[in-house]
Specification:
mainly beta
Length: 226
């Protein structure tokens, strides 16, 4: 489950968003360790163009007084790929979530940060609640090379292809074209996925060097401890 991610404003984001014709970049929310139920930036196509909007990172909301809040009964920061066919949002309201890294842990232990060394998009879903948006990140099955760090899932990452981004955001209900992408990939735009161990999941203190995920050796040992 992807539950913490980074949006580093020093990682060439303007150029990255320009490549996909994303408008309203001034609305971007940057920061390390973005948390669930807070506002994050997403890219939608709901107004006829690719544009940055801000959404609560929790797909299902409920009305509490005069405000919309994360629904207490439905923890919905992620949307599992196996249930996408049941979700009208998958057919009608897909989004992309800009990021530079994400954090995972195995049963709350041994947290690590994953990154490609460049910006990328998580594939996600969004809903509208009056003037408010909410979103979730789509999660896939774990990749064989990442299961030792997090055995349950791997986030769906959009390929570095404008044609895919166009099709993902256009809102078309035919989702058959996305089937080949519902499998985890540890390479993005020619870059290998890197992993770096952390002292704490929400912290910025590393306990070892970044390594390619398929070659990772935990600090101080020649054996895999995960």
């Amino acid at each position: 489950m992807c539950s913490v991610f980074d949006v580093d404003d020093e990682a060439g984001f303007e150029r990255f968003l320009d490549e996909y014709g994303v408008e309203h970049q001034e609305e971007m929310i940057f920061g390390r360790r973005r948390r669930p139920t807070t506002k994050v930036s997403i890219v939608t196509g709901r107004h006829g163009a690719h544009q940055v909007e801000n959404a609560i990172w929790h797909l299902y909301l409920e009305k509490q007084g005069d405000a919309w809040k994360p629904h207490k009964k439905y923890w919905s920061i992620n949307s599992n790929w196996k249930k996408l066919g049941q979700r009208p949002e998958y057919r009608k309201s897909r989004c992309l979530i800009p990021a530079t890294a994400w954090v995972e842990s195995q049963h709350g232990k041994n947290p690590v940060e994953f990154r490609f060394g460049r910006p990328f998009f998580f594939c996600g879903l969004y809903k509208t609640w009056g003037d408010l948006l909410s979103c979730s990140i789509i999660t896939l099955a774990a990749h064989p090379d990442t299961a030792r760090f997090h055995e349950k899932s791997f986030p769906m990452i959009a390929p570095a292809a404008p044609a895919f981004v166009d099709q993902w955001l256009d809102g078309g209900e035919d989702t058959q074209a996305f089937e080949p992408y519902l499998h985890p990939d540890i390479r993005f735009d020619g870059a290998d996925l890197l992993v770096q161990p952390l002292h704490k999941a929400m912290g910025l203190e590393y306990t070892g060097e970044a390594q390619q995920v398929n070659q990772f050796i935990p600090p101080g040992t020649s054996q895999t401890l995960f």
